[in-house]
Design brief:
Length: 439
């Protein structure tokens, strides 16, 4: 049985929730005060005023009842009605019982008048909202009485409610402006953290309340530590990889001067593989040395990456849209290296690669497919980790590599706010790798 949860109906953002916390007490207080005003103060005032006019109506009724005949009753009725500032007719027309359902004071007034005049025929409060029409039977005919509504109800009772609403609206606007100023530093901190997660360092200075300033200072300290750590790791990997090139060069030179034997050939292949590993390490190290973003023509970038792989003799097919892909603000060198690595992996483990670009509503998808053995679904998450080598899933005759190719691509794409997805190619039957870049 599904359980009811109020969380799904609540705002998800901090601003919406803070506004809700602000508005709920105000609205609740308005409702409570309004009900108390209408049911207590308004009703009691109406009761007192109706009791007062009930005495006057009783006097008018008694004058008609005490008159010896109809003519005398009409004469006495006219004098008393003029003195009491009432409008009365004898005989008069009967009025129906009519009242609007939301007329609370009318309900109280009708109840009091019926208690005083049980024989009351009807009270009409709809014919004219400012006039009360009532009919009382007498021994000389129907007595019709009309008097202003203001004599039995408080005048302009809505003024208090109007002032309450206006004051509440004004205070809500003031609170809204104050709340927006308080939340602005949090939004700035959120944007700075999001940009740093994508590899951008934006200018940020802590502001706002004490707690927000503390969080901002903690973020700046964390960002500085991460930048120092990235710089140190980059320098270490670059230094180690660069220093290894010197002995490798001497080894290559020494092996080239030796007789061409099988052992020498094996050693040469080992040296070449070590050199390839060093190049991969350098790519991995350079990945953290973030370049500035600039407007990039993705059509040209993908074409150049495919051409670079084609120069090695690989078969790469391009399937790009007829119209140019929209330009995005990217780091072109890093993304070009990622696309080239992905295409190189495709032709490395298969005989051909198919590169497709699709413009989606909110993103741009770069798809690279091959006809190789692919990667099992249970191993795809592991394949994106650094130094992961899925030799059982790929063609070992093509070389095992160091396990950084997909990790480099994934990190580059993630630094652009995108994702790298691995799947099975429906066209070629091998691996299908999708780079999703948000527009």
């Amino acid at each position: 049985m599904a359980q009811f949860s109020i969380k799904r109906y609540l705002p998800r953002g901090l601003y919406g929730r803070a506004a809700l916390i602000l508005l709920v007490p105000i609205v609740t207080i308005q409702i409570v005060v309004s009900l108390a005003f209408i049911q207590r103060l308004y009703e009691r005032v109406t009761e007192q005023m109706t009791e007062n006019i009930g005495v006057e109506l009783q006097l008018l009724y008694d004058e008609v009842a005490d008159a010896p005949d109809l003519a005398a009753a009409q004469t006495d009725l006219e004098k008393v009605a003029r003195a009491l500032r009432l409008d009365a007719d004898l005989p008069g027309e009967p009025y129906e019982n009519r009242r609007r359902f939301y007329d609370v004071s009318g309900r109280v007034m009708v109840e009091i008048l019926r208690n005083r005049f049980p024989q009351l025929v009807g009270i009409d409060l709809i014919e004219n909202r400012k006039i009360v029409y009532m009919t009382v039977p007498t021994d000389k005919g129907l007595l019709s009485v009309r008097f202003p509504r203001r004599r039995v109800s408080a005048t302009n009772p809505h003024q208090l409610l109007v002032w309450m609403v206006l004051t509440s609206a004004l205070m809500t606007i003031i609170a809204y402006l104050f709340l927006r100023n308080q939340l602005r530093p949090i939004r700035r901190l959120s944007r700075a953290a999001e940009a740093f997660g994508k590899g951008n360092v934006v200018k940020y200075s802590p502001g706002g309340a004490t707690e927000v300033r503390a969080a901002g200072n903690a973020f700046l300290n964390m960002r500085n530590r991460i930048e120092r750590q990235i710089e140190q790791r980059t320098m270490m990997l670059s230094g180690v990889s660069h220093d290894l090139r010197t002995p490798l060069t001497r080894l290559k030179l020494g092996l080239s001067m030796q007789p061409d034997t099988k052992d020498i050939q094996k050693l040469s292949r080992d040296v070449d593989e070590m050199e390839s590993l060093i190049e991969t390490f350098l790519d991995f190290a350079r990945m953290d040395a973030m370049e500035d973003r600039e407007e990039t023509n993705l059509t040209q970038l993908i074409t150049d990456a495919a051409d670079n792989v084609r120069r090695t003799g690989a078969q790469v097919t391009l399937n790009l849209p007829d119209e140019n892909i929209p330009t995005l603000k990217l780091r072109p060198i890093a993304l070009a290296r990622a696309c080239e690595n992905l295409i190189a992996n495709a032709v490395r483990y298969g005989s051909s690669a198919l590169v497709t670009a699709t413009v989606l509503e909110t993103a741009i998808r770069i798809r690279v497919e091959d006809d190789g053995p692919g990667i099992p679904s249970e191993s795809r998450e592991e394949a994106l980790k650094p130094f992961a080598r899925l030799d059982t899933a790929r063609n070992q005759n093509k070389g095992s590599g160091v396990g950084l190719g997909l990790a480099i691509v994934s990190d580059v794409v993630r630094s652009h706010g995108g994702t790298l997805r691995l799947g099975e190619s429906e066209t070629l039957g091998g691996l299908c790798a999708d780079i999703i870049l948000p527009r």
